[in-house]
Write a structure and sequence with these properties.
Layout: E1 19-27, H1 31-39, H2 44-47, E2 51-58, E3 67-74, E4 77-89, E5 93-99, E6 103-115, E7 118-130, H3 133-141, H4 144-163
Length: 165
Amino acid sequence: MINSCDKIDPKNISISLKMKFEGSIIINQSIDKVTALFNDPKYLKEYQEGFVRKELVSGMEGQNGAISKMYYQHGKREMILKETVRSNQLPHSFEAFYEHRHMDNIMKCSFIKLDDHTTKYQVEVQYTRINWVLPRLMALLFPNMYKKPARRWMENFKRLAEKYE
């Protein structure tokens, strides 16, 4: 209980905000082709707006425990994410933890073979930490702001995968 004599340090106030969303898209391409493109960082620029480069920090690229820095440019702002691969079970699934100075999230991707030429690509993203006032407020008031980029990346990835033979 807080009484009027207690001082509250705003740095010690933490609001837990766990936001989770899911999406899926059907890709007219084999699961092998889809997951090969997904697993190759050279294609990230083609479906993630603002992506600049990915640098391996430790481990083996794409393998469990690998840590990489991912650089994005949005206008004049540079964003750097730390990616830690939690589970790479491709061609079936991929899970990674992404850290940024203002927020963290876990992304789980699943690939389901529907037939020899069709794959269902499912994504689940869970924000586990948002520690800056403006992004937290935006997440509460406009959660679609966080969902739209993930959906756009899925649609971009579908276009990329379907153009390769």
